[in-house]
Amino acid sequence: MNPLLRFVSFSLAAALVAIHTVPPAHAERLKDLVSFQGVRDNPLIGYGLVVGLDGTGDQTMQTPFTTQSLTNMLGNLGITVNSATTQNMQLKNVAAVMVTATLPPFARPGEAIDVTVSSLGNAKSLRGGTLLMSPLKGADGQVYAMAQGNLVVGGAGASANGSKVQVNQLAVGRISAGAIVERAVPTALQQQGGVMQMELREMDFDTTQRIVAAVNNQFGMGTALALDGRTIQLRAPQDASEQVSFMAQLQNIDVRPAQAAAKVILNARTGSIVMNQMVTLQNCAVAHGNLSVVINTKTAVSQPGAFSNGQTVAAKESSIQLKQDSGALKMLNAGANLADVVKALNALGATPADLISILQSMKAAGALRADLEII
Q: Which residues form the signal peptide (predicted)?
């Protein structure tokens, strides 16, 4: 065989083996990694009244603002209510509520958005209620939407003779397409000279450089420029229609993000522990003893003798037991991947609450190669 052909055949075979042995790169769309500066949601908030409740509204003696709001509303409708009548109002079918919504970017007047209605007083349930017209304001105090409609409450409940059963939350409801946009928020995408900026959702210098390289590879050198580890400057077309096409193509570019930093998330309230795949473990020895306190309370009855004119007395007696498990040292082998780390931690047999303390101690000792974040 020709030596040149033999070399080409060997090189091709080696390349095929390399393709099958190297794991495929995991790429993500650019729209999942970045957001354009200026394209953002805007929170809205408002105050209103929900009427038509089946006797589950606010107790007006404890929530005077409900009657005050109703009086003001009736006054705007041309109905005069004197102060004596206001003080004697017993409104069981009305509830004061806070109305919240999110105004999406590029929303135009006449567009419908969803709203969430939450009880502000002591109403038992908002089920079956109707929200009266409520203005929704932005952070600048301007009215951007008007909300009104029938509530949908996902919970259910019943009570009788002091017994109560409830599923989910009854004091919060939602109105789909319950608000009409009245004012648009101007969105400025471009700066002077046709310059746009996009921001990474998570700061990473390596990912920023990869995005810049991918954008310049598709649109030409100089299209993207990294300003820092989060912000990327773009040279965009001046025409509005070309700008939309440019952004659509930009969002569909596939970029392989850099490996995230090793991190362990500890939720101190629930005891949840979450760690990513970059967490590693060094050889270490751990001893942790569980401490438990058990309190038993019994009621002892002292019965007086016959014809003694005494009274029966009930006294409570409590016994307290303190128990601490043995805390023998256990050797944990080093783990180079997430599966090895989980296997080593499970060998301790500790509860999630104990693991939080153990992981903090391991981090202090330098055996845990990860950042700890407590939420």
A: 1-27
